[in-house]
Specification:
The protein is mostly helical. The protein contains 15 helices and 2 strands. The chain has one domain. A two-stranded antiparallel ribbon has the order 1-2. The C terminus is likely disordered.
Length: 333
């Protein structure tokens, strides 16, 4: 029988969850692919045709290429810097979302320099160079100004203007509390995706390295909720705000850490939420409900016609300065 509510009270086993075993299996398979790739083994690293064809981000966000670059080139070398500046610099990096733009502005920013940021972004856009990531979309919030102007003058200014207050809030050691307060600022609210990305970046810096809620809280976005609906046997469009999504993720955290393969490191709540999004994406393909935005390009192989089309489409989206949806959208949803 499908489990709808109060699952943490009955404490069912993984066998009681309609797709509980599938979720654990997805985590094992995806991390196994990462390990084989890192070991230098030849593609394909799996016999699963869905994993071979489509991109699925790592179980552990810290292993993603862009985040690894950010740690090496931005946060780690500046770990000794004031927390308020670390918050601002992580916001700058994540709002643009590309290594190329971070390098173009010179990496670490000691102060808020809006004209420099906007000019650099505009010059790169005019020359067809990468500025914004294609992994998620930053909206113009219904305004007609160019995206780089909205991002710098409103979204990044909001962080700079409140940097010390945000630092004081973060000092209390709660990712959730910082996330909630970030969501009150222009450009960081909506569905809470960008606030969650920034808080997650800060989790592995001195700002939030001692956070006490890494195993008790995560921000369940639309993709994670669909993933939970699949695992617990609900209809996919179920999205009640009163539902205990967080408690279900806590329950899954215990199950996954108990049942996962030994080569998979111990997960925290961020990895559960993130993996639920990717698991939902995988199940959509498996069930013939749709397909992800990104085709995987194997090393050394020419991209398919579809992959080339998707790449061009991403570039076009990055250059557009049109109004998008009210909330921030991410590819994992």
């Amino acid at each position: 029988m499908p489990i709808y509510r109060n699952t943490w009270l009955a404490q069912p086993s993984i066998g009681d969850l309609p797709l509980g075993g599938n979720f654990v299996d997805w985590i094992n398979k995806r991390h196994d692919i990462y390990c084989k790739k890192e070991e230098g083994m030849e593609w394909p690293w799996t016999e699963d045709e869905i994993f071979q064809k489509y991109k699925f981000t790592n179980v552990f966000r810290e292993l993603d290429r862009t985040t690894v670059w950010m740690r090496k080139n931005l946060t780690a070398p500046n770990a000794h810097r004031p927390h308020a500046l670390m918050i601002y610099n992580c916001a700058v990096f994540r709002m643009f979302g590309t290594m190329e733009m971070c390098e173009a502005i010179g990496g670490w920013q000691e102060t808020y320099n809006p004209e420099y940021l906007k000019r650099t972004a505009r010059d790169r856009l005019d020359n067809k160079k990468k500025v914004f990531t294609g992994a998620y979309i930053i909206t113009n919030q219904g305004k007609k100004e160019p995206k780089e102007k909205i991002v710098v003058d409103e979204f990044l200014f909001a962080i700079w203007d409140h940097r010390q207050l945000l630092s004081d809030i973060a000092s209390k050691g709660s990712i959730q509390q910082l996330h909630q307060n970030l969501g009150k600022l222009s450009g960081w609210g909506g569905g809470g995706f960008m606030a969650y990305e920034l808080a997650s970046d800060l989790r592995y810096t001195p700002v939030l390295e001692n956070a006490t809620d890494v195993n008790t809280w995560a921000n369940a976005g639309p993709g994670a909720k669909r993933g939970l609906n699949r695992v617990f046997g609900r209809t996919l469009d179920y999205s009640s705000k009163m539902h205990p999504w967080n408690k279900e993720m806590m329950f899954l955290l215990k199950i996954v850490n108990d049942e996962k393969e030994s080569f998979v490191p111990k997960l925290q709540m961020r990895e559960i939420e993130h993996s639920l999004c990717e698991f939902d994406k995988y199940q959509r393909v498996k069930n013939g409900e749709g397909r992800p935005r990104s085709i995987y390009q194997p090393p050394g192989q020419e991209r398919s016609k579809w992959a080339r089309y998707r790449s061009r489409r991403k570039e076009k989206i990055n250059e557009e300065h049109l109004c998008s949806t009210p909330d921030l959208l991410q590819s994992k949803d």
